[in-house]
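User: Can you help me understand a structure? I only have the sequence.
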Amino acid sequence: MFIDTHIHLDDNRYLVELDKVIKEAKQNGVSKIITMGCDYKSSVMAVEIANRYDEVYAMIGIHPSEIKKCSEEELRLDWIKELASNPRVIGIGEIGLDYYWDKTYNDLQKEIFIKQIELSKELNFPISVHSRDANQDTLDIMKVYKPKGVIHCFSGSSQMAAEFVKLGLFIGVGGVVTFKNSRVIKEVVEKIDLKWILTETDGPYLAPSPYRGTQNFPKYIPIIAEEISKIKEIDIKEVEKQVEENVNRLFNIWGEFVWEDCYASCFVCF
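Assistant: Let's start by predicting it. Here is the structure, written out as tokens:
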């Protein structure tokens, strides 16, 4: 099966035709979808959507760009523990650091990011990390707290990707890898072991070629997998199978999986 490990199904562009979006994903072999929360409201919506569809799972949390809009009560994060009791919730995300738009509250971003990492460890959940113009700070925090998770929509160098992989973190690869001028992420895919790569759309954003500039959909995941297979010079079926194994290593969707055992056995991959 193909898997979309990061999308925002709470976006109104999806909500108006959600049954169709899920149906078309399945018709294109995309059998599992993980939808993200970015604040309390969108996290609640993510859980509600996951409850409606067997194919969908939810992650919950506060996106760095939403932090300054949140109330003090929301920033206390008690609601994350409450929502996390739902069996359709499989992680904390989308969380992280974003220095691109506004650097005036970087310290608050770090504080809430760390609190959510600590909460993920308490709940034994992986995290989905947003890191924009903040890779070094993100890496430094990962080295200290050592959570399990994925650096979603990775935009750094292959050298930086290798540093994250050394910590046991996965690299999220989306539609950007299909763009003609996307030399850096193509190099990341070439050099990083497939055992540490996850496929994602980040929909409704970043649709792959030839749909660049339009709304993204889970049904486009095979296009991303195909590009990865070309870069790796392997069959797309191998990408499909390995990503499925990677998802289970991280999220344990299909049953009991002991992360520590995997971490030890895969240390040679670093």
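Now, to help you interpret it: The first strand starts at residue 2 and ends at 7. Confidence is low (pLDDT under 50) at residues 257-270. Let me know which part you'd like to focus on.
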